[in-house]
Amino acid sequence: MNKQHRELEALRSDAGEIFRGCLVAVNPYKAVKRFVHLKGESLMLGMEGGPETGLDLTGFDRILIVGAGKATAPMVRAIEEIFGKKIQKGVVNLKYGFTEELAITEIIEAGHPVPDENGLKGTAKILDLLQGAGEKDLIFSLISGGGSALLPYPVGNILLSEKQDITRALLACGASINEINAVRKHISSSKGGQMAIASGPFVPDSSTFRDVQGIFAKYDLKGIPAAINEHVKAGADGKIPETPKANDAVFDRVLNFIVGSNILALEAAKTKARELGYETIILSSMVEGETREVALVHTAIAKEIVKTGRPIPPPACIISGGETTVTIRGEGLGGRNQEFGLAAALDLVDLPPRVVVLSGGTDGNDGPTDAAGAVVDPFTVMRGRDAGMEAARFLEDNDAYHFFEKTKDLLMTGPTNTNVMDVRLVLVG
């Protein structure tokens, strides 16, 4: 191995180490333990040394747990350790494989991102538990990334199969996660703040039925199930109630806190990169848009650093987060992070071998694959060509997984039991 390859391997190793540092920082078990603690008969919510919200536990007869998401199991474990036998019961829906041993709370594994029958059964159990709760019950609702898909409970005459169809259509057309969730909330009895009235997570919904109609029109969706169209139209016409909004009195007894987020992961990446000797900059934790286009923005920054040393000089680490979208045109296998990596790799071929790009999902699952994402460099496309593959063709077929499987560029972590969207790193040596 010559000097150039050794330096490139060092950059790839650093990228992996920085990404792993992100995962440690957003460990959901530790996040809950930092935020939730007891002082005598009071429950204290907040970081020690910072502002805290207190609740007198003597005013409650029971403690219940509900929730859903890829990071929810370790969150529940933390709450169970804090409260022990004071917890009477709990039910949570988790993505297949994202489980832990829990002492009290019942785990139901279910489908994500397309909901399935297990998700429906688990949501029914959660709603049943909530409907039996009263003013003397303290309820912990532990929601993490993936929770929306894992709480399917179609409203009215809408069937689960119809909700699955619209979910697949939205995923394929390139709709953003916010747009997908707006639709989900308006065709469900378990989202958009409706759990606060014992019928969806406990957060007010700012989207409307008219917004959903706009999303359908924006992507020119065909074949929308009649039951969904009729329900959305009835809501837009004011014939059925909107999802609960911020001024609804139902939220007067609800407290919502964020204990882990994408920006925390990015800050951890910045800290780790600086420890490794890199100049660093965080672009944004809210990057959205078509994945291939976002990838080219990141490689353009890499080119600028190589050529002019701007916006920061090498050794440099550019950091961004958020959740991009992929418009599916082909029949291949992959996810938005692998798609990002392949689009980036095609644009890196003319750069010197001192640039590495990593894109990874913090949950460890990118799309319907076992990879978190990919790590690429200026030789990635050549490695594919040596294996008889043309990167552009694989990108056109949305088949990044099979390309990177051969080039050994997949980012593999296994299920991480956390989920704060994606982290992207551009390293220039």
User: In terms of per-residue confidence, which ranges show pLDDT below 50 for 5 or more consecutive residues?
Assistant: 196-200
Please bin the fraction of helical residues.
Answer: 25-40%
Shape call: globular
The percentage of residues in β strands lies in 15-25%
- The secondary-structure class comes to alpha/beta
The named CATH superfamily of the largest domain: Glycerate kinase, MOFRL-like N-terminal domain
How many strand elements?
13
Count of alpha and pi helical runs: 14
For the record, the count of structural domains works out to: 2
Q: Which whole number gives the mean pLDDT? A: 93
Topology pattern, helix = H, strand = E: HHEEEEHEEHEHHHHHEHEHEEHHHEE
CATH topology name of the largest domain? Rossmann fold
Top CATH class of the largest domain: Alpha Beta
- Largest sheet: number of strands, sense, barrel closure: 6 strands, mixed
Q: Strands across the major sheet, in which order? A: 8-9-13-10-11-12
Written description of the protein model:
With 429 residues, the chain is α/β, with parallel strands linked by helices. It folds into two domains: 3-24 and 261-428, glycerate kinase, domain 1 (3-Layer(aba) Sandwich), CATH 3.40.1480.10; 35-253, Glycerate kinase, MOFRL-like N-terminal domain (Rossmann fold), CATH 3.40.50.10180. Helix content is 39%, strand content 17%. The protein has 14 helices and 13 strands. A six-stranded mixed beta sheet has the order 8-9-13-10-11-12, sandwiched between helices. A hairpin with a 7-residue loop joins strand 2 and strand 3 (53-56). Helix 1 crosses helix 9 (262-275), helix 6 (177-186) packs across helix 7 (209-218) and helix 10 (291-308) packs parallel to helix 11. The protein is globular and about 70 Å long.
